[in-house]
Design brief:
By secondary structure, this protein is mainly alpha-helical. The chain has two helices and no strands. The protein is rod-shaped, with a radius of gyration of 21 Å. It has a domain of about 55 residues. It starts with a helix and ends with a helix. About 5% of the residues are buried.
Length: about 80
């Protein structure tokens, strides 16, 4: 009976350790996604500027800024959590 409880407790501990590892990686993936999207929108803004499309350039700039802000907020929140 003792061994069964020990194995059950060990498996529960191992599952939580794995969950913590996954959440830490998901935090990194989220930050990487936000910064990637910010860079994509920045490149699209440059393309729109070269094509002299003011509306598209403004939209791309705004989207890039949104993703930049999301990255900054996520980075700060995740840094406090880790």
């Amino acid at each position: 009976v003792y061994q069964v409880h020990w194995l059950r407790a060990k498996s529960l501990k191992d599952r939580w350790a794995e969950e913590i590892l996954l959440v830490q990686h998901e935090m990194d993936w989220t930050c990487n996604f936000f910064i990637h999207k910010a860079e994509v929108w920045k490149r699209l803004g440059v393309i729109a500027k070269e094509a002299k499309k003011q509306g598209s350039m403004a939209y791309a700039g705004r989207q890039g800024k949104i993703y930049q802000c999301l990255w900054e907020e996520a980075r700060l929140a995740f840094h406090q959590t880790k």
